[in-house]
Amino acid sequence: MSHAKRIEVTIDGMKFYVMGNDNEKYIKDLAADLNEKIQETARTNYRLNQVQTLVLCALNVLD
């Protein structure tokens, strides 16, 4: 029986712990990609606050 690993990632300056059995590098790469998308959204929409930026980024990712 495998045990879930606790993987620390930082996204938009916030620390999160992801629990799972996935490869640690894969999880950290996903977090880094998301962080880049958030930063890009923030740069191109500089008047938005953090929550607005995160929601807009989420909509862009889902589209």
Characterization of the model:
There is one protein chain. The protein has helices at about 25-45, 50-60, and strands at about 5-10, 15-20. About 55% of the residues lie in helices and about 20% in strands. The longest helix has 21 residues, at about 25-45. Strands 1-2 form a two-stranded antiparallel ribbon. Helix 1 crosses helix 2 (about 50-60). With about 60 residues, the protein is α+β, with helices and mostly antiparallel strands. It contains 2 helices and 2 strands; from the N terminus they run E-E-H-H.
Keywords:
2 helices; 2 strands; 54% helix
Secondary structure layout:
Layout: E1 5-11, E2 14-20, H1 24-44, H2 50-62
Helix pairs in contact: 1-2
Cα(first) to Cα(last) distance is: 37 Å
Q: Describe the strand arrangement of the main beta sheet, using strand numbers.
A: 1-2
H/I helix tally: 2
Structural class, by secondary structure, is alpha+beta
The share of residues in extended strands comes to 15-25%
Care to give the gist of this entry?
This protein has helices spanning 24-44, 50-62; strands at residues 5-11, 14-20. The protein has 63 residues and is an alpha+beta fold.
